[in-house]
Amino acid sequence: MTERSYIAVIRHGDYHQRKDVPSARQPFGLTDTGIAQAQSCGDLLAEMAQSQRLEFAPMIHCSRQLRAWQTASRIAGRLRGLGHEIDALAETSALAERGLGSAANLTVAEIDAVMQADPRYPAPPAGWKSDSDYRLPLEGAESLMEAGARVAACLTEIAEAGRGRLNIVVGHGASIRHACHHLGLLTRAQIAQLSMFHARPLLLCYSGHDNWQHLAGAWKVRPPKEEALD
C-alpha cells in the first residue's frame, strides 16, 4: 500500500494592508495580532501531530510574501521550542496569492481608471475581485482559478515528496480555497461560502492518484457578501 502524505495548510496571520487594494501580494508584515496567531499555531500543529500520531517533515513551505514567511518562522520557532526538528523554511512563488500582474498593489479606483483609459478592453465587471474565473487583461495577471491550480500542483508535489510525514504549508486563503476545489475537497459553491481562519491549520491527507481527504481543522463560514483580502 502506498504510504500516505499529510499536509497542514495554513493561512498566514493577520497583517498590515493598504485600504481598497485588491491585490493580496502586498509586501507588508504581520500585525501584533498576527504574530500572536502564528505563535499559537505552533501549539495547534503540535497537538494535531500528536493526535494523528505523525512526525513533522523537517522543512516548512511558504509563499514569498513577508506575512507568510513570518508566520512560518514563528511556527518553526515554536515547534523547535517544543522539541520538534524543523530544519529550514522553503519559500516558493507557487504558493502566492492570485497575481494582478502590472496592476499589483493599485487601488480599485486606480485599476478602474487604468481599464477605462485602455481602449482595448471593456471595464471590469461588477464584483470582479471575487469572481473565480475573471482575469484582468493586463500583463502577468491571473484568475483565482488559475492561482488555485498553481497552488494545487504545488501541494501535490509536496505531498508526493513528503510521504509518511506531516508537511506544513503556509499560504493564502483564496488561493488555498481554490486549490482545494481543484483537489476535489470543495465544491464550486463552497469556494465562496467558506474562508480560512488566520494561522489555524487544516489537515489534508493525500493517498496518491489524486485522492485527497480533509481530516481535521475547521473552515471559517463566510458571512454573506463578505469580501476580504487574503
Describe the structure.
The chain is of the alpha/beta class and 230 residues long. 35% of the residues lie in helices and 17% in strands. The strands form 2 sheets. It has a 6-stranded mixed sheet with strand order 3-2-4-1-6-7, with helices on both faces. Strands 5-8 form a two-stranded antiparallel sheet. The longest helix is centred in the first third of the chain and has 21 residues, at 32-52. It is globular and about 60 Å long. The termini are far apart. The model has no long low-confidence stretch (mean pLDDT 94).
Low-confidence segments:
none
Strand order of the largest sheet: 3-2-4-1-6-7
Radius of gyration: 18 Å
Count the E strands: 8
**What is the end-to-end distance?**
38 Å
Q: Total helix count?
A: 6
How much beta, percentage-wise? 15-25%
Mean pLDDT, all residues: 94
Q: Which descriptors would you attach to this protein?
A:
6 helices, six-stranded mixed beta sheet, 230 residues, globular, alpha/beta
Element layout with pairings:
Blueprint: E1 5-11, H1 32-52, E2 56-62, H2 66-81, E3 88-91, H3 108-117, H4 144-161, E4 166-171, H5 173-182, H6 188-193, E5 194-195, E6 202-206, E7 212-216, E8 220-221
Parallel strand pairs: 1-4, 2-3, 2-4
Antiparallel strand pairs: 1-6, 5-8, 6-7
